[in-house]
Amino acid sequence: MHTLSRRTAELLYLGPEMQAYTRYKWTWDPLLPYLRKSATCHDDVKLYSPEMKIGGGGPIPISNAELIDEVKRFKSRFTKAWKSTGRPMTENIYDGEMNGFAHCCDMICRDQRSGSWLFRLIIDETDKSCKGVTVFDPSRKELNLYFTRSHSLLAKLLMPSGIGLNHDISKHRIITIVDSEHVGQHLLNYPGAPIVFQVKDGYGMENHLLRKGPGHTATVNAYKNGNKGSIGSGLLKMICFQRIDFYLEKDPAYVAAKKANGGADPFSPLGQPHFELYFVSIFITAFQWHFMTPRKGQHTCVVVDLARPVSDPSEVTLNSANS
Fold it and tell me: Could you tell me if 126 and 153 lie in one domain?
């Protein structure tokens, strides 16, 4: 799902702020082709309506998150709890509105995860055009891939290739191809807070993935026999985009700030969600690295991201010619 909806959030939630740094209009219609162009969605199990347009024939295969047997009970209970609050269920978050509960689409397609490490651009020295990228595959083998169409590129890929602020990249003995004042600049962080809850046995994945035992053995065997089961899953099945106006309106300081802002929400004035929430039915060590993994019990990790941060912009600079 992150290939489309997360990028949509980053681009569109911050449209008014980003407009100052580009001559293009940061709104839905002109950005939509770029949001879809990188991926091709394979809905093999027919989870979504054919009218939902996810991806645009690009090189990255994605699919709707597989509902593995081990998390069916968790999903059922969570969906029931969400509906009981009266908040919306919004399966189609790909046509311009992101609001409420949705199921995920991810980069694990047909039991294979898409991914490689981008290293640098392949630049044609004659006309200074970008012809492709150099990547590392999972075995760390260097591969040169050449474009058959145009692609958008990230600052950490542009700068080692000689595109960025001259005074920053030249000190690493990188030849400047384009001296651009905006590459790596005007960046906003998305603060997130992981929260862990212990749940009843049968609603977490620890015994299948983190602890030795019959469940773990069965999980490993399933993956060995065709990459099936929870090892081949991203585990992330559910995500929510939530506004909390009902809570904020109880705070006198917020009410005053909203009034001073002409009656518009000072955090998300165009109706953007306040928070993006992920629900994963396991203790996630990557998010809770400073805690010991529990030896017993099962857990749900809720990751709460501030969807539209209001902060001073930061920057990305190089530490070396390679990073």
Answer: yes
